[in-house]
Amino acid sequence: NQSASAFDGRTDEFKAVSTTLDANSVDLSKAIGEIYGADAEKNFLAAWRKHIGLLIDYNAAVLIKDKAKQDKATNDLNDYAAAFGALLNSANPKLPKDAVTDLVKTHITMAKDVIDAQNAKDWVKIYANTRKAFAHMDSIAIPLANATVAQFPTKYDGKADASGANLRTSLT
Question: Structure pTM?
Fold first, then answer.
């Protein structure tokens, strides 16, 4: 929706979607903060916001049909994926850096596929790509949740409070 509103020049909608997207980023970072502490929360939020900004850069480059800027945004996004993999691995050694990097690269590719389909006004691809991108988030959330449970087995042991299930739901 954020890129679609940008493509169509719907400024108010773009701002509303951006605000909602940032609120989601804050919620995700709070979930990380509950597990790993305030520093991890702050670092995660900064990193997550960075990738959103880089996707906006890609979107802007697509809008003006500037291949060089698209390529730069893509390279920056791939660099981000590696840095994000390192960030999560530093918080939880049970999350292999390369595996996280690959998952984030897939997430980025899927988000770019949505943007590209929106630019082409290919409605079938827009909705199909959006559904695939949404479904892929489980591929990130589930390993993160499982690694967190493995790192803190006594904190998320599936007792009556269902902390492990709540953690997975929050991350998804």
Answer: 0.81
